[in-house]
Amino acid sequence: MEFSELVKHRQSDRKYADLPVEREKLLQCIEAARLSPSADNSQPWKFVVVDDPALKEQVAGCATELGMNRFVHQAPVIVAVVVERMNVLATIASAIKRKDFSLLDVGIAVNQLCLQAADLGLGTCIIGWFDEKKVKKLLQVDRGRRIPLLVTIGYSEAKTRDKIRKSTEQMSSWNRY
């Protein structure tokens, strides 16, 4: 798929077919994330791929509190995105500039994972609303680490929707704000 087509095709999918996702395709998605740029090449991420059905159901349950994200149960795979510690130089730069480079880096990596999935015919949805403490316990993630995002992956049963976005003039300018 041409890149311009790919960014139009990728969407937050909330309806998945009852089909397993091939491990080779999941590995391609992880590889796309692995190759993402990061501040001082610190690569502050780890992706925990949850494809065991019983464990996946438990993790999905952590994302459905208050009636939110019920569709997560349909997805055959959930990827937990763990923020790892940055290297020393990126940590210092983050403190000096008061910017959390690790979260920026994770966002880029997750986007690359999702674009790769779309290119392989898979749907994804990035989830920020979930019980992080319970997910960390289920996946045996250290207390000092954070899981800012979950990503569902599967074969989407949803049609590609037209993007509803601000106009180019509303979201960009030239040479000054």
Automatic annotation (TrEMBL):
GO terms for molecular function: oxidoreductase activity. Keywords: Oxidoreductase. InterPro entries: Nitroreductase, Nitroreductase-like. Residues 7-155 form the Nitroreductase domain. It holds the Pfam family Nitroreductase. It comes from the Bacteria. Belongs to the nitroreductase family. This is Nitroreductase. It comes from Acetobacteroides hydrogenigenes.
